[in-house]
Amino acid sequence: MAYVQKLFEENFIEYASYVIKDRAIPHIDDGFKPVQRRIIQSLIDTDDGKFNKVANIVGHCMQYHPHGDASIYSALVNLANKDLFIDKQGNFGNVFTGDPASAARYIECRLLPFTKKVLYNPQITEFEPSYDGRRNEPVTFPAKIPLVIILGAEGIAVGMATKILPHNLVEVLEAEIACLEGREFKLYPDFVTGGYCDVSEYKDGNGKVLSRAKIETTKDQKTIIIREIPFGTNTESLIASIEAAARKNKIKIGAINDYTTEEVEIEIKLPRGIHADEVIDGLYAFTDCEVSISTNLLVIRDNTPVIMTVTEVVEYHAKQLLVVLKKELKLEEGQLRDRLHARTLERIFIEERIYKRIEEMKSKEAVYLAVRTGFEPFLNEIKREITEEDIERLLKIPIRRISLYDINKMKKEIEEILARLKEIKYHLANLTEYGIGFLKGILESDGERFVRRAEIESFEKVDIRDAAQKNLKVKYNKETGYLGYDVSNGKVLFDASIYDKVIVIKKDATYMAMNVPDKTFIGKGMLYAGLADKETMESTVFTMVYRNKENEFPYIKRCKITQFIMNKTYELIPEEGELIKFTTKEDVSAVVDFKQQSLMRSLGDTFPVEKYLVKGVKARGVRLKAKEFTSAKFVKTSTIENS
């Protein structure tokens, strides 16, 4: 048993770590999950400037990815629809309507030049063996921009999840420039579907946002047109949510039509007697026209899952940009110095006719020695040790190159190399300035492709109770004792919405709060039924006269019902009480007939109810008189005074 438990614990930890690091959570360095990184690597491997069948890319990617072709295909389509790295040809689906892409054998793709500009340099990329050891795949790409917040991501791992919203590339690069310049910056999400976005609770990537559809109305207020939709929805799901709300009587619509093509256009026709301003709040409250999106910026950094803020991501990548650019400059500097050394050797080798020294040499060693000796007078020009590889390369120069040797062309190339080395030296000394220039270059060349779509706007979340239409007629049938909006042949008591609550007081002086019922049995002789909203409960006073069965004296009680637990039965009067009369009227008096000691008939004693305090629902009543009584009733006070 101990062995099994140990095996389980070890395997579970290994599985959890794998899912977190190698499947679900993106890496901060390049913003990719492993499958996305492998797709980009496959596109680089097959890049020849022409379109490739997606099926071919998927097949190639399986050399890197151990989880099958279905996940590769869906990830490639999603990545391509970001319109950032991949040039598409064919039907890649529609992000507005939710229509799927065509099969992999029918669509094609290739890398955009932007990809290699910001993402790929194999000479400074760290590689590791693929799952079967046959190929090498990048650990991460040396990305020059914070792709993790540009692309966005969503993933669920063991015990953790990430939800990163996409941001506008232009705004992100401007924020990175501001970071390098030491200025403050703020970033907010942007969605390809457009709409409105309330970021008041975004909390730098770890809060929530509200995303709303952009809605227009016609002049006659009889037609609603949805032009842009919230993030995470499509026209199909949005229409389904509207139809579901209409079926549940939450909103009133006549007909709904979808005319979406390249742009969203959903038309909602309203029925007679209903206008747009009565429906729009309901669309935001009861449908996907408004969605709340919680965010959690969880990424892999230093081989560990870490929660970061958007600001921290930009600052991290500002530093990474300088590191990557420095590596590239150093790499280019080394390559240029190698070229300069090679060209200098070639020039001296040909100009000074050193090749003539090897004509009579009879061994390889003698040839090498003759060449090396020939360069000795010029060592101050060479500035680097001459290796056997250098000599071997010189000996392989074709005779026609020697005969056609152009000294001016060689000098021009050397001058260009020296000029570029001078530029690199300046850039290395002013790396921040060079990084800012690089980012500005991207903005100039590619900025026009990335226009903000979602409008930042502050709006209050619509309360579903306020938006719900009171279109339910709550009736009570005193013959059958049923209450609800589906009761037939009953008296209409009030109008309600499906989100309202109802207070019901029965003839035994018990009360209960419940949701608006469709049809429920209350019993014959119901005393009261009304909405249990704050306004009604604050303004309604329940007055009752009851008999104390222990002494037969009359008591009066006045109270308000302001607190309750749903579907729990409460008592209005004490256990020893017997309800005699009940009212919610204010301008009334209790008229009580007491038992008489003589044969003379009394008109009864009058007690104006306004003289008695309104107390809590748990309070006991006030004794009217220490005398047994026969009956009681409520009479309008003004009537008594006039008589």
Give a brief rundown of this model.
With 643 residues, the chain is of the alpha+beta class. 36% of the residues lie in helices and 22% in strands.
Description:
Belongs to the type II topoisomerase GyrA/ParC subunit family. Residues 25-472 form the Topo IIA-type catalytic domain. Keywords: DNA-binding, Isomerase, Topoisomerase. With 643 residues, the chain is an alpha+beta fold. The chain has four domains: 32-142, Alpha-Beta Complex (Topoisomerase II, domain 5), CATH 3.90.199; 214-288, Gyrase A, domain 2 (2-Layer Sandwich), CATH 3.30.1360.40; 317-448, Orthogonal Bundle (Topoisomerase, domain 3); 467-642, no CATH class. Helices cover 36% and strands 22% of the residues. The strands form ten sheets. A four-stranded mixed beta sheet has the order 14-9-8-17. α2 crosses α3 (54-61), α3 (54-61) packs across α4 (69-80) and α10 packs across α16 (431-446). The radius of gyration is 41 Å and the shape is elongated. The model has no long low-confidence stretch (mean pLDDT 89).
